[in-house]
Structures are given as structure tokens and as C-alpha cells.
Fold this sequence. Notes:
Number of strands: 7
Order of helices and strands: HHEEHEEEEE
Structural class: alpha+beta
Radius of gyration: 14 Å
Helix content: 10-25%
Amino acid sequence: MATANRADIIRAIFAAYLSSNRKLVEDALSDDFRFTSPYDDNIDKSDYFERCWKNSDWIERHELEKIVVDGDEAFVTYLCVAKGGKSGGKSFRNTEFFVFDGDRVKRIDVYFGASYENGRFVRQSER
């Protein structure tokens, strides 16, 4: 598979969150999909939609800053901007590591970055 296609799949997944197109995301993820973040440890596809999908309505936009594809793996770094009133207008930068199996995503690992409010750094409290 061409690396441009994988980058396009990543762009489509991020766009699907903003348009609430759950079907596109479900179809893009493999049946044995796994997701890990600082809050989630290797959860499956069902748990991913239960825990992560229902909490995406506060996002105003993703600014995809960099997508690097290397074979079956890709990194994407993005700025996530919250809708005006929700989360105090905060934004944060994350990097996600994607692993593909053919044209479907088999794994996503999320690495959290810094948070900002009104353009100023906000120190995160420990969980």
C-alpha cells in the first residue's frame, strides 16, 4: 500500500471524529484493534468506542501538523482545539502512533503533549 493512502486514512479518521461519522472509523479499524493512551491500556475496539468516541463532541478542530508514514507504521502529531466554552478553550498537542494491517488500523498508541489555555501553557495535574 502506498504511504499516501495511509496518510489519507489517518486524515479521514480525524475528519470523521469532527463529523461524528462513527461508521467510517469503525470500518477503518481492524477487528482486533487495540488502543493505548495514558488513560487506557491496550483496550479493544468495543471499549475504545465506549470510552473515547462518546467524549469527542467537545473538539472544535484538529490541526494535523505532521504525518510520517514508514511501511505499516505512521506517526501523526496534531493540535487539538476545544470548542469555545468547553474545557475553557484549551488546546493540546498529541502524537499518535498507528500500526496498519493492510488498509485498516490495527493499533493506535497516544502520547499526550502540553496543554494550553488562551495560548498559555497549563501545567497538568497528576491523575
